[in-house]
Structures are given as structure tokens and as C-alpha cells.
Amino acid sequence: xxxxxxxxxDMQFVIEELVGLSEVAALPGHEDLTSxxxxxxxxxxxxxxxxxxxxxxxxxxxxxxxxxxxxxxxPKGFKEAYKAYVDGGWNxxxxxxxxxxxxxxxxxxxxxxxxxxxxxxxxxLCPVLSIAGxxxxxxxxxxxxxxxxxPKLVSGEWTGTMVLTxxxxxxxxxxxxxxxxxxxxxxRISGQKIFTTWGEHDFTENIVHMVLARTPDxxxxxxxxxxxxxxxxxxxxxxxxxxxxDLRPVSLEHKLGIHASPxxxxxxxxxxxxxxxxxxxxCRGMQYMFSMMNNARLAVGREGVGIATxxxxxxxxxxxxxxxxxxxxxxxxxxxxIIRHPDVRRNLMTMRTLTEAARALGYYVAAQLDVARxxxxxxxxxxxxxxxxxxxxxxxxxxxxxxxxVASIGVQVHGGAGFIExxxxxxxxxxxxxxxxxxxxxxxxxxxxxTRKIIGDGGQSVALLIEEMADTEIPDSRIEAPFLQTxxxxxxxxxxxxxxxxxxxxAALAGATPYLTALGTITGCWLMARSAAIASDKLANGAxxxxxxxEAKITSARFYADTFCPQASASLATAMSGSADLMALADxxx
Amino acid sequence: xxxxxxxxxDMQFVIEELVGLSEVAALPGHEDLTSxxxxxxxxxxxxxxxxxxxxxxxxxxxxxxxxxxxxxxxPKGFKEAYKAYVDGGWNxxxxxxxxxxxxxxxxxxxxxxxxxxxxxxxxxLCPVLSIAGxxxxxxxxxxxxxxxxxPKLVSGEWTGTMVLTxxxxxxxxxxxxxxxxxxxxxxRISGQKIFTTWGEHDFTENIVHMVLARTPDxxxxxxxxxxxxxxxxxxxxxxxxxxxxDLRPVSLEHKLGIHASPxxxxxxxxxxxxxxxxxxxxCRGMQYMFSMMNNARLAVGREGVGIATxxxxxxxxxxxxxxxxxxxxxxxxxxxxIIRHPDVRRNLMTMRTLTEAARALGYYVAAQLDVARxxxxxxxxxxxxxxxxxxxxxxxxxxxxxxxxVASIGVQVHGGAGFIExxxxxxxxxxxxxxxxxxxxxxxxxxxxxTRKIIGDGGQSVALLIEEMADTEIPDSRIEAPFLQTxxxxxxxxxxxxxxxxxxxxAALAGATPYLTALGTITGCWLMARSAAIASDKLANGAxxxxxxxEAKITSARFYADTFCPQASASLATAMSGSADLMALADxxx
Lengths: 590, 590
Known about the structure:
Two copies of one chain form a homodimer. By secondary structure, chain A is of the alpha+beta class. Chain A has three domains: 8-155, Acyl-CoA dehydrogenase/oxidase, N-terminal domain (Butyryl-Coa Dehydrogenase, subunit A, domain 1, Orthogonal Bundle); 159-283, Butyryl-CoA Dehydrogenase, subunit A, domain 2, CATH 2.40.110.20; 441-583. Chain A contains 18 helices and 14 strands. Chain A has helices spanning 8-19, 21-25, 35-53, 57-63, 78-87, 106-119, 121-140, 143-155, 285-321, 342-374, 378-413, 425-432, 442-455, 460-471, 477-498, 506-540, 547-575, 580-584, and strands at 66-68, 71-73, 159-163, 179-183, 186-197, 207-214, 225-231, 233-235, 241-244, 247-252, 263-268, 274-278, 323-326, 335-337. In chain A, the strands form four sheets. In chain A, strands 3, 4, 5, 6, 7, 10, 11 and 12 form an eight-stranded mixed β-sheet that branches. The first copy, chain A, starts with 7 loop residues before the first helix and ends in a 6-residue tail after the last helix. In chain A, 59% of the residues are buried. The interface between A and B is large, with 94 and 94 residues.
């Protein structure tokens, strides 16, 4: 098994040369952000990932979290790792200084969190939820709520959760039934929730649950849902912990992967009802949740990149070491490492380039989000926000599909050893499989993309993106030709959605997934092509020791264009095939 | 969790209407084979799969086989299931009557074994190995060996194994080191073997290992390998069991899937050396093993279909039952089952049509194998054998890739529930992952296809297949257009391999996998198109209650052509991209 080693060179390239750290550093509040600072942070994070989180990834998978007498016991070493994480200040990275944070832009916090995802996905899910909770309270909480809950969520002294799903309310959150009855300055919450990630654990003294529930007489569906802060232990005015609240984990799910992360069935209000504090106004809970969703979806897309990176490193290391077979060009020279075989190379290059493209796309959107938040010009902020809104579902769905694909190829590169759990490749195959599912399945992402982000604005946002891509100078004809072809196909498919040949609403829904896949592939190609152009310039000016890195960037972009542009065009053809065949069979015929 | 229910209607369609039972029934020795007989056999087998094997699939996964004091204890119910399997005569299906078999053609035994694969893959692996061993002895054993070992392997009273792999000898079998030293009328075998499927168990009194080993002074590589019968217990001349042979399972692998199947590390000859009997001549072991490989590879391809079917049934059943969201056309009508959503339909249709196409291809090749074995005309036999040889690697690799894809989509259809092991979908995702690996990785299959089967005969076999496909009348223009396009692309890519633009042998190796994927997709499309044509005829003549089945065949073929033909063309473009990019990076750059 290979320990994780952060791909610092590629991360720095994307941050500094491709996406442009300078643009983000020019934003108000980020003036102190230098290339040196960023490198120092990434190097420290890499060390923490390699030395603290990675070594307990496999043992955490084997041991898993378990529920014993109402208490969740996390795998050996996890509690200590969480303490080291908090002590290192890692949880505070992206919060504003006035909240106790370090005020780093998403462009920098994204690669850092990617490292946690690579090193130990089960662990990494815990802080992500605390951060999401703090960000939401910052936006919608009262001053008193902010003061009481945010500092400890930012520091990591307490953790947060998102409590949405119920047995009958998954993708359709509006169907949830958990009740919230007002009582004085609080509410009494009762109901059962499932799939609560890190809903209970032994890391911290308190856990702050963000719970969706329905108030009496609230309208049905998503318009009747409110959001509540429901702590595990009540908190006194002086900040000390009070009595235990009326909630408990009933059981943990037995999952395919991310075993270290306890996925809880939570029972609220078995006795007098759990005390919960309303966030914002009644019946606006979904809106508050949605406001966090962009970040949460970008985070899951990032997990796809993280797992892909880990699987790629594992496979590449194995392929370099595993001696088997002879070289095709020089068969007399004895046995060689399997990395010399072209078919194994194809697997590795596929893994490598999908990972690089998905990373580039994720960081690009992170930087756009930084601009959307902080740029002094309102028009620039709005444009960046539109780009973010358009690409969030793509980052979430395409990057996680890439993660699963890469993890599966990673198993394959190992041959029989890949199927043996001790090797480590199988864990990535299992762990990765959750990412296309949670935080809105990839099908939901595709529908969001096509209905809200494409049809919703008459295709304007995507037209701007296509225009920008078409205007990009691509000096390498081997990349340019397939890229321009697939761009033309994208334009045509977009027209199909914006100006459909049918008034059946199912046609757009039917084409959503292949359209999203193609859009991810093509934006990935755009960023790979730009990377190759930058690399060309560097090489022309004498790249010194960095020459192999830049040469590899050009090779990667060419391989990617050759391999994935035709596939994107194929997906776009499928995206326009309508819903008639899909809906033709009777339900019973399946 | 859904129990397995054999897709009898589709199986019968492929056997009788698409591939043509009548052609196989006309072969010498199969004269008694009527449609009624075949249906009766399939129905009995379906019952056995549903009632005996399917119910212990999930419990077998949870419990797994375990090694206790040198003895492998199989999961609860497995020993009884194996006894019922033997008592039912299921092991004897495809053997000639003179060997104690029922003399059924591959066209009939293939669907029966597919049922075992669907119902319980871990279980099904055991008899497959016994059958392979018996078939090899039938070809290459002495009369004495045949008499001693074959009847009990045919009946299933004993089981057989294939013992090839060693830690340093996987895909490169020629690197193996296990020694065989002659001693009187036998050899003494010593060495360690890994990945021995069902190498030890509690099903039967004896186990007959077929072991590859190296005799003293044998030449290096595959030319120095001999094959030996090495029984767990010695067998006296009167057929009773003698003393235990010098071999034992050292440990079982902890695997990603097929937990019920014990994958053994086997130690031979820790003391005086295990007694083994030479099969055929010294140093011809690889040739004997290769002779079985066609069947073994077809069997693994069939496993891909089996797992895909099971995953599809599980997902379809869940999609019909899971109520979530509203209908796009009629949103006011309340919540609907998710099978009404076009995006879920796309997932189900993808699963369904890949499974149908892979099944059709597998049965088609099985029937060709029947013709190759029994047709009275030597020329016809040779033609059929050439078609089999060409398509065996395609069936193995493409069908198992389909199996993994379908199983992964199956998880996705379930949403969050798919990630929970209790649901059952995750087991298929785990179990399926071994099939692209064992019996020659799919990369090895692709190399076999391109180097031996395409380049090796100057492209003749595939040219005949392409010609036959091009000559097929496809009355449905929606299928014909994409099919003909992709066929033209196949022709062009084939020329690239047969008459390459470069003398670098790595170019063909680099394009092997995408070429194989395309060839599988296209032959699958051909059989789907023919199915649609047959269905059209039936409907034109009044299909009665069968109308929905035939209509679905047409819909499936159209969906398949729309979705997968463009992808096949994309793969073919990639297949011709050469090896320069693949080999450009230094090994250390990965």
C-alpha cells in the first residue's frame, strides 16, 4: 500500500499558472497572499496528510466506527488525528479573521481540503460539515446565535452536522416529516433522520446538528421546511455545557465504503422533544440549505479529485514496481515493470489526465467563487457568480464520475492484487462510490444543470462560457482540432435544450446526464489545452529542471483531447436523442 | 433485496429466435434437442437458482469462507446447496453421455450457468473449475487417468481446481517456479501457489488440483511448464481414498467481493513433496491449459452477463417501488415511483440494453462453438472455430466491463440506499470487479485480440465478420444509420492494425483496449439490430400477448444504437492514436 503524497507541483501549477493566484491575491482582503505563503501552507498540509491522516486510512477502513451503548467509538488514532487537526488550526483556514479564521481564499483552501480527501476521506467528511454549518450561521443566524455557535465550529472545538434525509425523503427533501413545535424561545423537535454523516462521535464534547423540520400548519413540500440548531448538549450562557438534549444515534449504517465515517440513524425527541433554535425565519429552511449547497457540491466534486489522486498514486507506484512480462520493443532484455507496457500506460494516462482535468476545473471554479465574493466591481462579481452557478453541478457530478472511473481502473492496474483488500486499491473503489450519490445524486445535478442553469437563463451563461472557450488560442493543432469539433457539438446540443424541438419536458430531462458529462469533459479539455499552451511558453523560454513537468503537461493534454473529445461528442449526440425510447416501456417490463 | 428471477423470456428469445436453436439441434448428437426440452431445463434451472442459490448469496457474502485449523468452512447453506446441485445432476449438463453427462450443447448450458452466476457468483465458481478440469483430462489424459478422475469430476462428487498463479507469475505464467521432480510413475511437486479459487472446502471428500509446475532442466518460460494432477487425497485403485497428499491451504485472501468463494494460498510439498501425475507430455502444460482457455474465458464473460442481470433486476425492482418526486408531465398527480423519471430510465435502459447485448453475444459465440465441435462439414467447423477464436477475448473483456458498468449504475439507481450493504446492490458492484481481472486481465484479452486474432491472420477473420454484419438487412433506419457509420469506422481501424502506419509494435498494443471495446459494442449492436428485425416480423404477424416483449426489443435496439454506436466510433478514433503519447513520460513522472 502506498501512502499519500500530495501532488504539490501540479497543485501549484494550477493555482499559480493556470487559474492565476495573482488575480485572487488582488481581491480585497487577500493582499498578503503571496506565492511563498501559499506554498508554505500547501507543504505543511501535505505533511499533515502524509504523516497523520494517510497512515490511518486503511486501519480506519478495517476497524470502522461502531456504536457501543449509545456512544460512537471511532477507529484507533482518529480522535488523536482530529485533535492534531484542530491544534494545527486547519479547520479555520477559509473563515474570515473576525470569525477566528485565517481568511484564505477558496483557491487555496480547496487544494488543502483535497489533501484530506485523498489522505483519508472518512476523516475528512467530519470537518467539512462543521465548516458548512458555521458558514450558514454566519449568513442567517442572529447575533446571539453567531456568538454562541460559530467560534467553536470554526476552531473545530465542536463539530457540526447536516440533518436532512428521512426514510421517505431523500432527493425529494420536501417530503420530510420531522416535526418542530414552538415552545417559548425554542422549538421541540421530534422525528427520525437517516444518513447523518458524523452524527455522533468521540472527537469533541459537543455536536451541533443543523436539522430540517416542519412546523405545525406549515405548507406541504419544500415551502414548509424550517432549519434548526439542535445541539447534542445544551449550552449555558457562559459557554459551559448544560444537560444532554433529547436526541441519540439509534444505529450506524453498514456501508460499502468510508467505514471510518459513522453514518447515523438519529432519533430526535423520544421523550420531551429535542430543543432546537430556529435559524432565520420559519419555512425558509430550504433556502438556507440551498445557499450552502454550492459549497457543499464543490466539496464533493473535490472529493472525486481527492480519491482519484490517491488511486492514481497507488496504481502508478504498483506499476513501477511490479515486474511482469517483457518490453515490446526490446523483448530480449528480460522482464520489465508493467509500467513499460502500452496498455498499462493507457490506464495510467487515463487516470492521470482525468484527475488533472477535474482538479483544474475544481480550482478554476473555486477562484471564480473567490471573485464572486470579494471583487470590488459588482458586475464582475455577478459574472463570476453566474459562472460558478453554471459549473457547480458539473464539478460535483463529472468529477465524482471521474473519481469512480479512476478508482476502478486503479484496481485493474493491480491485476489480481487489486481485488485483495490489503493492497489498498479496493478501498478507493469502495470509498469513491458514495461521491456520485450524496449531496444530490449526479442525476439530480444534471437536471439542475439543464433545467435551471441552461434552460433557466435561456442558455446565456453557457453561451458566454462557450464563447470564451472558442476565443482561447490553442497553439497545438493536435489539441485544437478535436477540441473545436466537440465545442461545435456542444453549441448544437445546447440549442437543443434552449430551443427544443418538442414541448415534452421529459426530453430535456432525458438528455441531462450525457450533456453534463460532455460539458465536464469539454471544460476539462479547455483547461488542459490552456495548460499545454502555458507549458509551451515555459519550455520555449527554458524551463530548466521543470522541463519534464511542462513536457508532461503537453503530452497529457494531447492524450486527453485524443481520448475524451470524441467521447464528449458521442455523449452530446445521445443528449439530443429525446425521451421517447426511454419512456416507451411499461414499468412492469423492466 | 430482490431475489434472482431468471430472465427466461429473453434467454429463450436469444436461443430460439436470434441465435437459432434449430441450427444447433441439427448437429450430430443433438437430434433430440427440442424447444420443449430446452424450456423445461431452463425452467428447472431457474427454480434452482431462485430457490436454492439466490437466498444464500447475501449471507454467503457476509459470512464468507474461513480457514480454521487447515480446514475451509464454507458459509451456512453452501454445503447443502452443493449437494442439491450434484443430486440434481446440474454438473453433468454439457458432458457427453459416455462420460456420464447429458450431452447438452453450449447454447443450452451457457444460459443455465448464467443463472448460477446471477444467483450466486461465489458458489458458481466452484463447479466451473471442476468442469474445466474434466474437459482437459478428456482431451489430454491417459485412459487410466480418464477412468480414475473424470467420472467424479463430471458428477461433482469431487471438485477440481486450476492452480497456476504464483506471487511472481501472474499474467506472465511462464515465470512460475513450482518444481516437479520425477519419482517412479509420478512426480513430487513443491512450491507456493496463490489465487487458487475453491482450492480447499468442505463440499466434497476429495479435490483434484490441476497444477502447473516446472520439471528439472526444463527450458525457461512457458515452454518449460508441465501440467499435473495433484489430488488432495490419494486415490486407491479401487476408487477409495488413500492418505492425504502433501499440500494444504496456508491462508485465504481477504477480497473485495465473492467472499463465499475461498481464494487460497496453497502450499505444495512442505514435507516429502506432493505426489502429482503428469498430464500428456512434459513441457506442454501451457498448451493444455490454453486449450481450456477459450471455454474458461467464455465462462467469465458469462459471469459478466450474470452479474449485470442480477444488478439490473435489483435496480429495476427498487425503481418501481421507491416513491420520490413528481412526474414531469403531470406534476399535480402526487409522488411517483422513480422509474417514471427520465434520468432513472436512462440508467435502467443502459443497464438493460448492455446486458441484453452481452447476453446475445455470449450465446451467439456458444452456438458457434457447438458448430465448431460437431458440424459434419470440416470447412463449416473451421469457419465457426475462427469466429469463436476471434470473439472469445471480446466476450471475456467487453461483457465483464459491461458487468462492472451495470453494477455501478445499479448502485446509483438506489441513491443513498445503494451504498448500504443491506440493500444488496453494493455486493454486485464488489463481486463484478473480479471478472475483468481473472482468467487473463481485460488488457491481456485486448492484446490477444489485436495481435493474434487480428494482425495474426492479416485481418481475415474480422473482415468476414464485418462483411457479414454489413450484409445484414436492418429494416429500422434509426438503427441502421448509426450502425453503418460505426461499421465503417471499424473497417478503418482494422486496417490501421493490419497495415500499420508505423513499425513500432507498441502502436497496436496501445490501441488494443479501445479497439476491443468498440468491437464488442458493434457486435452487440449487430445482434440487437437483428433482434429488432425479428421482433418487427413477429409484430407484423400478430404477436398477441408477446407484443410488449417484441416492442421492447425494438426500443432496446434503438436506444442501444443511439447511445453506444457514437461511443464505439469514439473508441475507434482513440484506437488509432498510436503509442507516442502513452510512452512519452518517464516512468518516474507518473
